[in-house]
Design goal:
Blueprint lengths: L1 H24 L3 H9 L13 H17 L3 H9 L4 H12 L10 H12 L2 H13 L7 H12 L9 H10 L3 H8 L6 H25 L1
């Protein structure tokens, strides 16, 4: 009937208007690139310490997260930061694969850069250091900072909160570790907090013991 037809027309009109505004509001490549440039991301030349690779990638991911960069524009923004040898390699790589570059995703770019500039032997060394790290004579704060630094190079080993917390606990000074284990399963933040309290307490006792002797 007439009423139903009118309702149907209104629905269609609302849909058209909604689609129009969605198209108008969608960020363009030019606006995304301009916004990205405002963050002054680090350049990457492919030279120097292999650790720079992940530091560069993490820096870009932080910017992309803050600016809510659409996935389809991340490769465009990232390749703008390639300079020197890295840019020559990037252009040569895709020069041998005409027509394939349009399908390159951010995940693919990260994998390609890591394979090229973050060699397997170095990854293995970072993994060894991470898995063998012990608190030793460090304070808990110093140990936690080193765990965090090394974890950035072996993300596959700390994919979950539980894995990160367990690795932190395993390397603690025995007296501190046993205290945390006695508290049951912990989040990473809670494990660090308990360890800091216990570590500070043990160090105070050591100082008192030395003073009284």
């Amino acid at each position: 009937d007439l009423c139903a037809l009118e309702i149907s027309q209104n629905i269609i009109m609302c849909s058209i208007i909604s689609n129009f505004f969605n198209i108008q509001m969608a960020p363009t490549q030019a606006t995304v690139v301009a916004q990205f440039r405002d963050y002054h991301a680090e350049k990457f030349s492919g030279q120097g310490d292999p650790r720079i690779v992940d530091e560069w990638i993490q820096g870009l991911e932080f910017i992309f997260e803050v600016m809510e960069c659409p996935e389809r524009y991340r490769v465009i923004c990232a390749q703008l930061q390639l300079t020197g040898d890295a840019r020559l390699w990037w252009n040569a790589y895709w020069g041998l694969r005409p027509g394939e570059k349009a399908g390159c995703t951010w995940e693919m770019l990260k994998e390609l850069v890591r394979d090229k500039y973050y060699p397997t032997y170095y990854r293995a060394e970072m993994e060894r250091q991470f898995l063998s790290l012990q608190q030793g004579t460090r304070t808990v704060d110093e140990y936690e900072r080193e765990i965090t630094r090394l974890a950035a190079f072996v993300p596959d080993l700390v994919r979950t909160e539980a894995q990160r917390a367990q690795r932190f606990i395993d390397g603690l000074y025995p007296a501190v570790r046993h205290n945390i284990v006695g508290h049951g399963t912990q989040t990473y933040a809670r494990a660090v907090s308990i360890a800091q309290e216990m570590d500070a307490s043990l160090r105070r006792e050591t100082v008192r013991g030395q003073s009284s002797s």
